[in-house]
Specification:
Elements: H1 10-28, H2 33-47, H3 65-78, H4 80-99, H5 104-117, E1 121-124, E2 142-146, E3 149-159, E4 167-176, E5 179-189, E6 195-198, E7 212-222, E8 226-228, H6 248-271, H7 285-313, H8 319-348, H9 358-368, H10 376-393
Parallel strand pairs: 1-4, 2-4
Antiparallel strand pairs: 2-3, 3-7, 4-5, 5-8, 6-7
Helix pairs in contact: 1-2, 1-3, 2-4, 3-4, 3-6, 3-7, 4-6, 6-7, 6-8, 6-9, 7-8, 8-9, 8-10
């Protein structure tokens, strides 16, 4: 049992364990690349994991941010790319449930589809021209008003799980008569004519994630599938309740990658007996020091994630302060994952570079955590501003 399993909804954890076991079997059987992710998405769907985040009144398990963090660690430890794809889905829905961005009846309709049909979604916002939208700016992708809905044209990049998604959330610059250009959000079915996937994903990390570009060429979105288009173009400001969903699931997912690296290298150190040594390398003080540092980093990440998520769910401290801490938790946990995999590789040596070994994949996958928002500089700058605020206000 992982340290914080007892804090999670037992039903959510049971589903996560089931999904992770299925994914581990796929990996052990030797599947690879996008074929492996296709199988993993099927496992996430068949196990019921995709519906854990859906409220109980709609047939789901009503997973909280704490449940999601514990569960995501388990999924990502089985395979980082599967954890990333699952994270995109649960993080987007978790955010949608509290953002007040979606019309309520529209969100209920979509969530019933997740429960009844296994709908699988990703929030596709990033673009080649602007990168991540986290720092603001207008999308190059456009939404133009047409009869009965909107025409979408443009391109989205780094769309994790693209070939296996049933739906995507799409941000676009709205073009409508008499209204300044502004951002709108749309729910788009992947089977819509005018959508194609450009299979160009060749990343160093998360190689199985099928994070291809999605191209829109006159894709039609009916008015019934508009998440938000303001008639006056006023800017949407997310409520405080969305804050934990913008960092904690990332932190948990990449901690799962670190757990897999730790598990592999601990087993390797305990059993690897070089002929010139005559005992396991785990008996060497230098190796034990590195393993000890791995344990310290992993404990730090897990305590930060679980503690912050639990404080949020149980309303144990000021939510404004908690919200401000989320970026730091994500930054610390993802950097810890990078450091853990680095230490593990130093212990394993050349064996850790072999593609047949788990560590090689974990070493690469952990680096992906550094580029998800909030980026380190944003989180650290915000923390610095908060630290100086009392003295400047005084």
């Amino acid at each position: 049992m992982a340290p914080y399993d007892h804090l999670a909804n037992p039903r959510v954890l049971m589903v996560a364990q089931d999904a992770a076991a299925r994914i581990e079997q796929r990996v052990a059987a030797g599947a690879s690349g996008h074929e492996l992710l296709a199988q993993c998405v099927a496992d996430l769907r068949e196990s019921g994991y995709l519906a854990t985040i859906v409220p109980e009144r709609l047939g789901g398990l009503g997973a909280t941010i704490l449940d999601v963090c514990v569960a995501q660690e388990r999924i990502a430890a089985a395979l980082g790319s599967a954890g990333l794809a699952a994270n995109m889905h649960v993080m987007y829905i978790g955010n949608a449930l509290v953002s007040r961005l979606w019309p309520a009846d529209m969100l209920d309709r979509f969530l019933r589809g997740v429960v009844e049909h296994g709908w699988f979604i990703n929030n596709c916002q990033a673009e080649p021209e602007m990168g991540s939208p986290a720092r603001g700016g207008l999308f190059a992708t456009t939404a133009t008003r047409v009869d009965g809905g909107w025409r979408i044209d443009g391109r989205k990049s780094w769309s994790t799980g693209a070939p296996f998604l049933t739906h995507i959330g799409v941000g676009a610059t709205v073009r409508a008569a008499g209204v300044p250009e502004h951002v709108g959000q749309f729910l788009v079915e992947m089977r819509t004519p005018g959508i194609r996937i450009e299979e160009n994903w060749d990343g160093l990390a998360m190689r199985e994630s099928a994070s291809h570009d999605i191209v829109f060429d006159g894709a039609f979105v009916p008015d019934a599938d508009v998440i938000r288009v303001s008639p006056t173009g006023e800017k949407y400001t997310p409520p405080l309740e969305t804050s934990p969903w913008h960092g904690l699931p990332w932190a948990a997912t990449y901690t799962g990658v670190a757990v897999a690296a730790r598990d592999w290298v601990a087993g390797y150190a305990a059993t690897r007996v070089p002929t010139n040594l005559g005992k396991p390398i785990g008996d060497l003080p230098g190796v034990r020091a590195k393993l000890g540092e791995i344990e310290a980093l992993l404990m730090t990440s897990r305590r930060l994630i679980a503690g912050t998520a639990r404080d949020w769910v149980e309303d144990r401290m000021d939510r404004g302060e908690l919200a401000a801490q989320v970026g730091l938790v994500k930054s610390i946990a993802t950097n810890n994952a990078v450091r853990i995999t680095d230490l593990a590789l130093r212990i394993a040596g050349a064996a850790g570079l072999a593609q047949r070994n788990t560590l090689e994949r974990c070493f690469r996958d952990a680096r992906s955590g550094l580029i998800h928002p909030p980026l380190d500089d944003v989180a650290l700058e915000a923390a610095a501003v908060r630290a100086m605020r009392p003295y400047r206000e005084g």
